[in-house]
Design goal:
heterotrimer, A alpha/beta, B mainly alpha, C mainly alpha, B: mainly alpha, MetI-like fold, C: 2 domains, 3-stranded antiparallel β-sheet, 17 helices, MetI-like_sf (chain C), Phosphate_PstA (chain C), Phosphate transport system permease protein PstA (chain C)
């Protein structure tokens, strides 16, 4: 696809919870100008792997991550890596929309505030507006920014969460099945949004919906039982899979 | 300088440090517009904490250590040579001198106490000055050292958060310190008591009359069996005879029969019973219930009917415990899977039959655990028995006769004008230790029973 | 309860006898079902009875306290004609407003003048002995309020002595009852404001609760200042940051056990450590507050942990994912959301501490203290302890004072619990 160096590289990553080995020996490169989709049956470890890309697994006491994950060549599990800064650079959107029980404005402004990205109120306002606009929500909420974020519909809440992630100006956005709790119309909006955001941020999306992966992504990784079975251009994976298991999954023989 | 002024001064220093460090950190940001891990206020907090925390920690330690240092300094003066050898008299004189020096007492009973007071005051003033100076020095040193570290790349946020984490840990250690404090103070004083009175005399003796202690054989008058019996009789027998049926039946009615609306106002009504202060129950027991109980006893032809009967105290204690039993039973009944209830009802059993034969047996371990907790509560209850039960210890099965309890005796022993180290005062700590051990045991067993029961239905 | 649920069809005989279906309409069966329904009703009534009995106990207790206590808020007054023109005052009446007026009036022999007036007016009924010891203070305050009273005769209703007061309320000794009958229309009733402004006294008619109330308030300030921060901080630590290991388990077990330790044991701890080892002043709100803080802290910890646990993890994830540090996650999101629960638990714990008596007895807050404490290290008593002390008094006048003090304490507790319930209902969020 491109000759630029990868944004994130993961090599030989293992993740385990206690004695349970969730991910084995996964190596993947993520590129800035692409949307990368992780597909695979439920429980195959794709979400676990995603969470290890911004160290959200740190919040689970028994989780162990080994291997090497780098952001722009920096080892994100290195001692001197500040996990807070890492998460500001690698944002995340969750399966279920989880806006803070605060106003819409506060939801988006929260990240810029804690990272000190705005020097003034006006600058903060501009960041909020820009983020909501990019998330395609501005026109719907511009007149009620002080309403609670939880009062929005599910699809709007999810776009609010995306706006919140964008607001801290991340380099990578991780999306963990962002549409699984939404209806088809809202899903279509999110997919459009992903399409619009492509190129500005490196996007990694976990989905169990193959059509969605085919629609939104340029590169696709197929996970099965904690292993990476196949990784390549989306068009190749869907039209011409090299592995038998990938083919079986895509053609709906299991999953 | 008074402790409050000092605290205020140190806090003010912290505030100044915060403002200065924040201003300085802001200046970096204007120079370079790159992303820092720490915002200006993080630097402010870091310097402020470095200013305040060491000084306060020192003051806290100093507050605990300096009384001993002051006493040592006083003992080193020439007048202190006149003091009697270590023992009760010496402690009394020293404490008198300390009270006078602190301005809390004006005359002394012993001339030596009066004579030592100036030395005490001088030593106190000296050590107070030392404490103040060191605390302020620490504050300045901490502030200066941390201020020098304020640089663009310095991760003040993670340092501050590390400090806060230590603060949180320290807060949760207070619980351990309290537990250790309780156990230590009880054990140390009890050990002193058992040096005077043999353990066996205390635990198995059946005669309790601390007002007349024979100095040659103090154990003869300090046998605690009548107290243990009285405590058990009032707390575990009479009170439970009231609280268990009423509490259990209330819980059954509220969970199984009452409409949600009735339940909404009946349940808080019961809980109000638990919120009434025990001193009110005590007054109620002594003033209203006890005379009625004595009359009833006399009417029944019981000559020994006392106005300080076990029955009056136990009845009122039972009323106090009702909401406790009721809420435990409520929880246990609610934890029984509804499938069991439905199964019984589906066979054509009536509600009463279902409750008696299915729900209550299934909830029984939880209920028993709740009753054990209630007993532990009743055994430790003080004010009702202090006000309504008697001070004389008798071994009796007659609920109309006067009976005393462990808690009542602790209060009686400690509120007389007895010296701190006598067998009487120390006996209160031995009783306290016994009480602590019994309630702890009851709680542990009760929680084990309840937990096992919960696991069975999870 | 030996009846069985359904008529038993013995399995062993079923093979022998030909199977007959149960006749549900037989006479015996119908009687049986009726009996079972009766038992059902009986059981249900038994349950209702238990609730009613418990509620009746509460109602009875409250009625007894109110019936006895309301009179504590009322005082009997005797109308006394006064003529103070002979009073030798060292200052002009116009200057009686400023400081020093109290001393000037006392020095002029106001107390004796009032007594003399009472002796003149009611010689047959008992004279000055009819009046409360503090009656002349009312005259003093009246004069300070309006110095012109010194220039002409006037009448003033003054509080009567405790024995007369009790008799006027229909509960006194025969002698006092006779005096009351004779005084007749000279007696009147009024609100006993002194009850709210006075401190403890050996004279029931002068005893008030302000001293004890102030002692309680100072004690509660110390308790809150210590128990609240320590309780909330340790709850945060245990719930959000503590590693799962033996040490943490030990902390948890300690806290849960402390919540169940009898309050008197905390009193023993206070006596041994705060008074015995640290030599803090005896009977002081500082020591009382410290002791009650140790007792209240576990309650706050447990309530706060429950409130913190109720905050859904998705909020924490959301904050972490935009790069909030663990401390920021808690201070910006978890704590604000858990605050209502934490506050509710704190108020309930404080209400319990306010009603607590036994530990305060242990650290000597039971002394007779006739002046309200001025600071945290002054000798003081607390409201529940005052109730306990008054309940021991032989004098009849203290019965109504005790009940009245109980009513005041209950009003405080009801108010605190009311606020707690309001907070819970107003801010409770279900996730």
């Amino acid at each position: 696809m491109s000759n630029n160096p990868p944004k994130m590289t993961a090599s030989h990553v293992d993740v385990s919870y206690g004695t349970n080995h969730a991910i084995r020996d996964v190596s993947i490169d993520v590129y800035r100008e692409d949307v990368t989709a992780f597909i695979g049956p439920s429980g195959c470890g794709k979400s676990t792997f995603l969470r290890s890309l911004n160290r959200m697994n740190d919040t689970i006491p028994t989780a162990r991550v080994s291997g090497d994950i780098r952001l722009d060549g920096e080892d994100i599990y290195a001692r001197e890596m500040d996990v807070v800064q890492l998460r500001a650079r690698v944002g995340m959107v969750f399966q279920k929309p989880n806006p803070f029980p605060k106003s819409i404005y506060e939801n988006v402004a929260y990240g810029p505030k804690i990272h000190g990205l705005a020097q003034s109120k006006g600058e903060l306002d501009r960041i909020v507006e820009r983020s909501l606009t990019r998330a395609g929500l501005w026109n719907e909420v511009k007149d009620r920014l002080s309403d609670p974020g939880t009062a929005l519909s599910g699809g709007q809440q999810q776009r609010l969460c995306i706006a919140r992630a964008i607001a801290v100006d991340p380099e990578v956005i991780l999306m963990d099945e962002p549409c699984s709790a939404l209806d088809p119309v809202a899903t279509a909006r999110i997919e459009e949004l992903i399409h619009d955001l492509r190129g500005r941020y490196a996007i990694v999306i976990v989905t169990h919906n193959m059509q969605q992966a085919a629609r939104v992504s340029q590169r696709t990784a197929f996970f099965h039982l904690g292993q990476l079975i196949e990784y390549g251009d989306t068009s190749d994976i869907f039209t011409n899979p090299r592995q038998e298991r990938t083919k079986d999954y895509i053609t709906g023989r299991y999953g | 300088m008074s402790p409050l002024t000092l605290l205020f001064l140190i806090s003010a220093l912290g505030l100044v440090a915060w403002v200065i460090a924040r201003t300085r950190a802001r200046r970096f940001r204007r120079v370079t517009r790159q992303r820092f891990s720490s915002l200006p206020q993080h630097h402010g907090w870091y310097v402020a904490l470095c200013t305040v925390v060491p000084a306060l920690t020192f003051l806290l330690i100093w507050y605990f250590v300096s009384p001993a240092l002051v006493t040592d300094a006083v003992l080193a003066t020439s007048r202190a040579a006149l003091l009697p050898p270590p023992g009760f008299d010496r402690a009394a004189i020293l404490s008198e001198a300390r009270e006078i020096a602190a301005g809390r007492a004006f005359g002394a009973f012993t001339p030596l106490g009066q004579a030592l007071a100036p030395a005490y005051a001088a030593a106190q003033a000296r050590f107070d000055t030392i404490g103040t100076v060191v605390a302020l020095l620490l504050a300045f040193a901490g502030g200066a050292w941390s201020f020098l570290r304020v640089r663009p790349g310095f991760s003040a946020r993670s340092r501050t958060e590390g400090l806060i984490m230590w603060l949180l840990l320290a807060a949760s250690l207070v619980a351990i310190a309290t537990t250790v404090g309780i156990v230590l103070s009880l054990v140390v004083e009890s050990a002193r008591f058992f040096r005077i009175v043999p353990v066996a005399d205390f635990l198995f003796g059946t005669h309790w009359s601390p007002s007349v202690i024979d100095p040659r054989d103090p154990g003869a008058a300090l046998g605690a069996v009548p107290l243990f019996w009285g405590t058990f009789f009032i707390g575990a027998v009479i009170a439970m005879a009231v609280a268990v049926p009423l509490g259990l039946m209330s819980a059954i009615y509220l969970t199984q029969y009452a409409t949600p609306r009735a339940r909404r106002w009946m349940k808080p009504l019961l809980e109000v019973l638990a919120g009434v202060p025990t001193v009110v129950y005590g007054y109620f027991a002594a003033l209203t219930v006890a005379p009625v109980v004595r009359e009833a006893g006399s009417a029944l032809g019981i000559a020994s009917a006392s106005s300080e009967s076990a029955l009056a105290a136990g009845l009122v204690m039972g009323i106090m415990i009702i909401p406790f039993v009721s809420s435990m039973a409520d929880d246990s009944l609610a934890a029984v899977p509804s499938a069991m209830r439905d199964g019984s009802l589906a066979m054509g059993a009536t509600s009463a039959e279902t409750i008696k034969r299915v729900l209550v047996p299934a909830a029984l371990p939880g209920v028993i655990g709740g009753v054990l907790l209630a007993i532990s509560r009743a055994v430790g209850e003080t004010m009702i028995v202090v006000m309504a039960a008697s001070g004389t210890a008798t071994l009796t099965l007659n609920p109309f006769a006067s009976t005393t309890t462990v808690t009542k005796q602790i209060v009686d022993l400690l509120t007389g004008e007895a010296e701190f180290a006598s067998a009487k005062t120390l006996a209160a700590f031995a009783l306290g230790l016994t009480l602590f051990a019994i309630t702890l045991l009851l709680n542990v067993v009760a929680l084990m029973v309840v937990r096992r029961y919960r696991e069975a239905y999870d | 309860m030996t009846e069985t649920l359904v008529p038993q069809a013995p399995v062993s005989t079923a093979e022998i006898a030909p199977h007959r279906p149960t006749d549900w309409r037989s006479h015996a069966m119908e009687r049986r079902i009726r009996r079972r329904y009766t038992a059902e009703r009986r059981f249900r009534l038994l349950g209702l009875g238990a609730v009613v009995v418990s509620a009746a106990c509460l109602a009875f207790l409250l009625i007894v306290m109110i019936a006895q206590g309301y009179q504590g808020f009322v005082e009997t007054r005797l109308t006394l004609p006064l003529d103070l023109r002979d009073l030798r005052l060292e200052r002009s009446p116009e200057r009686l407003k400023g400081p020093g007026a109290d001393l000037a009036l006392a020095g002029a022999g106001l107390e004796r003048a009032v007594d003399a007036a009472a002796n003149r007016a009611y010689e047959a009924e008992g004279g000055a002995a009819l009046l409360s010891d503090g009656a002349w203070l009312r005259v003093r305050d009246a004069i300070k309020h309006d110095p012109r009273l010194l220039t002409h005769p006037f009448t003033l209703a003054l509080p009567v002595a405790s024995a007369i007061d009790v008799a006027a309320k229909g509960n006194g000794t025969p002698a006092a009852e006779r005096s009351v009958a004779k005084l007749g229309a000279h007696l009147s009733c009024g609100a006993a404001w002194d009850f709210f402004t006075g401190a403890d006294s050996t004279d029931a008619a002068r005893a008030g609760i302000w001293g004890a109330l102030k002692g309680s308030l100072l004690t509660m300030v110390v308790t809150l200042a210590l128990a609240f921060p320590v309780g909330v901080l340790s709850a945060i630590y245990l719930e959000e940051y503590a590693p799962r290991n033996r040490a943490t388990d030990f902390i948890e077990v300690s806290i849960n056990n402390l919540a169940a330790v009898p309050s008197i044991v905390f009193g023993l701890l206070g006596l041994a450590v705060f008074l015995g080892t640290l030599h803090l002043p005896r009977s002081a709100p500082l020591v009382g507050g410290l002791t009650l803080a140790l007792m209240t802290m576990p309650v706050i910890v447990i309530a706060s942990r429950n409130a913190i646990r109720a905050v859904p993890p998705s909020i924490r994830d959301a904050a972490l994912a935009v790069g909030a540090s663990p401390i920021q996650v808690v201070s910006h999101h978890v704590l604000p959301l858990a605050a209502p629960g934490i506050l509710t638990g704190t108020i309930i714990g404080m209400a319990r501490a306010l009603g607590e008596t036994a530990p305060l007895l242990m650290i000597g807050m039971r002394a007779f203290i006739a002046a309200p404490p001025a600071g945290f290290t002054d000798s003081a008593t607390a409201l529940p302890v005052q109730i306990f002390l008054w309940s021991d008094q032989v004098s009849r006048g203290f019965v109504e004072k005790t009940s009245a003090a109980i009513l005041v304490l209950l009003v405080f507790l009801v108010a605190m619990n009311g606020v707690a319930i309001f907070l819970r209902n107003r801010f409770e969020t279900r996730w």
